Amino acid sequence: MAGMMLAVAAVAQPRVELDRDVANMGEIMFQLPSKVSFTLKNAGDEPLGITEVIPSCGCTAVEWTRELIAPGAEGTITAVYDAKMLGSFQKDLEVYTNASEEPMYLHMQGRVVSKLSDYSGTFPIDLGNVRLNVNNVEFDNVNRGDHPVMELQILNTGRKSYKPYLMHLPSYLSAEYFPEQLNGGRMGKIMLTLDSEKLHQMGLTQTSIYLAREVGDKVSEENEITVSSVLLPDFSSLSARDRELAPRLVLSADTLDMGEMGRKRKKSMTVEVRNEGKRTLQVRTLQVFNKALSVSLSERNIAPGETAKLKVTVAAKYLSKVKSSPRVLLITNDPARSKEIITINVKP
């Protein structure tokens, strides 16, 4: 029996699954730093820790998920290339985790140019006289007191100078523009800052802001930028005893593959939400990232050893109109998995 227990203990370990190990960044503009992210999923049964990420040169700045990644959860490694040299590049990231004594290697490649030959890759959002790199901004894993910053890159495709301006900013968002006046054919950036102290609720907060393309511009779906933030609960005051007795969330699936909608107006699938901890599991917040989804949960307070059923429904008529990927957010009182995302893969 002792031998069997040792064998089981030896098998239990974190395991890394990557969304990709090579990121092709395409053409990027000279002296306009460009960012790329890699997603790491813990496919093992013990917490995963990213201990160090070493770039191959000082031209690349890196950030990564510092807290332990629970089994089934995801972390990110983000690299920013400074683009100070023209020409093709390939840079490497040496990644150390507690899943192996050997490092993993991630690669980023592309070409720095003085003038873009194709705007669609770097600036796919066409607003007429200006183009954006994104029109959906997500502030993920925000703790109370944080002030995270997201960068929007903007290109003036016209001949006249243009002054970027974001309309309908809520009180918890602020923007800075670099440069404030953008000459024709030039690129700039908008730095969007979130003040987490002004968020009113835990979990998901969403809003729409609008980029003015000219003086007196009006709001419309065309110049809309959606902004999402996820505020996490604070477990910093929990004692070791409280953590030992905490609830433990286990999902039957964190990804639902629904295939193609075809002629169906709606499709549904069910996820089991189980509590394998010692105290009642509370699903404090249950939200969706866009209106193509609706959800219902059979029980929000799940006793130890019990299971609730989460039904996820996709409405076909909204799929083509949403800007963010269909996902479900759960905020719970499990300190190890306080935030869980269920990704829905579905085609119109």
Give a brief description:
With 348 residues, this protein is mainly beta.
Structure description:
There is one protein chain. By secondary structure, the chain is mainly β. The protein has three domains: 2-113, Immunoglobulins (Immunoglobulin-like); 119-231, Immunoglobulins (Immunoglobulin-like), CATH 2.60.40.10; 240-347, Immunoglobulins (Immunoglobulin-like, Sandwich), CATH 2.60.40. It has four helices and 26 strands. It has helices spanning 2-11, 119-122, 240-244, 316-319; strands spanning 16-18, 22-29, 34-42, 50-55, 60-64, 74-81, 87-97, 104-113, 125-126, 130-132, 136-142, 149-156, 165-167, 173-178, 187-194, 203-212, 224-231, 249-251, 255-260, 266-275, 281-288, 293-297, 301-302, 307-315, 327-332, 339-347. The strands form six sheets. The chain has a five-stranded antiparallel beta sheet with strand order 9-10-12-15-14. Strand 7 and strand 8 form a beta hairpin. The longest helix has 10 residues, at 2-11. The model is unreliable at 4-9 (pLDDT under 50).
